[in-house]
Amino acid sequence: MGTEKDTRTNYFNIFNDKKPIVVRRCSLEDLEGVIEVNEKELPEDYPYFFYKSILDNYPESFQVACNNNGKIVGY
After folding, report:
1. Which residues pair with 25 in a beta bridge?
2. What InterPro entries does the annotation carry (predicted)?
């Protein structure tokens, strides 16, 4: 089973600008950004309810990394 997805990592570019990254607890409003990061950087895609169940069951452990504009760049 193959994937046509380009999975080259782009995360080095987000750290080159030397601006702070904030790590904080994920919220329900963050899930679309988490999915966007996952689909861009990883070969496997999970449905919304997968992330929602993690948030519901492990809210203290589900963290997101945001750039200085508030955009989610990791989780």
Report:
1. 63
2. Acyl_CoA_acyltransferase
- Taking alpha carbons only, the member of 39, 3, 67, 73 closest to residue 50 is 39
- What are the angstrom distances between the C-alpha of 49 and each of 32, 44, 56, 59? 11, 15, 10, 14
Residues constituting the chain? 75
Residue with token string 């945001």: 66
What would the pLDDT profile of 14-69 be if each residue is shown by its tens digit?
A: 556 567 899 999 999 999 999 999 999 999 999 999 999 999 999 999 999 999 99
Contact 52/3 with Cβ under 8 angstroms?
Answer: no
Structural domains of the chain ordered from first start: 11-74 (3.40.630.30)
